[in-house]
Amino acid sequence: MGCCASTERSVTASRASRWRSTGIVAMRDCKLKVFPSEVIDLERSVRTLDLSHNKIVDIPVDINKLSNMQRLILADNLIERLPQNIGKLQSIKNLILDGNHISSLPDELGLLVRLEKLSLSRNLLSSLPETIGSLRNLLLLDVSNNKLKVLPESIGSCFSLEELQASGNSIEELPSSICNLIHLKSLCLNNNNLNQIPQNLLKECKSLQNISLHDNPISMEQFQQLEGFEDFESRRRKKFDKQLDSNVMINSSGLDEGVDL
Fold first, then answer.
1. Is-contact 177 201, C-beta < 8 A?
2. What is the pLDDT, as a whole number, of residue 237?
3. Hey, how many other C-beta atoms are within 10 angstroms of the C-beta on 77?
4. Which of 45, 102, 114, 140 could form a disulfide with 20 if both were Cys (CB 3.0 to 4.6 A apart)?
């Protein structure tokens, strides 16, 4: 028994030493039910933490000790809520929480001002906090397959946003502020309840190359009548032609035609 205990301590110490030296903690598919306390003990050493595909329910309050963490991946767990002090993770750039049971987000999410990628698909979100507009460095927001009926007006303040994925919700209209997203390249809104989109969307969002509106009440005729449609169509075709010229090999389900109604 003493020998086994000694060996286990040695293995644990060796693992902790490796994590500390690399800054990378990867514990995918480890059947974890609780957030490992030994990770919290590493504090500022952790830069990437991947605990995806486990059965973790709670994120500990003292996660704020991981103050240098840049990537937090907790996809496919049983997490129901985020702690309020998650806003203290000031170094974080990628936050991946797909496939959990999260129904709401704390206002403190808006304090993650360095965040570039926020992925929350396959959760139970019925709304997004207005503070999301404080994420001025956000490049990608994925809230697909939730229970959203609206997007907050403040989303128009996410000025760096390039990709917005919100398919598989119950969204009935888009906030007019979405027209402020001048860097937006891809907008995916399949399987919602949209019967119109803001009139100035194509005119103001001059970087937009792809809009996907499959399974919405809106018609192609409505879309084509929007001001700026011709310029959008030109960008879409240019992108498509560039893909063909580069011999991009993708299957038919991944072929981006730009407009899907």
1. no
2. 85
3. 24
4. 45
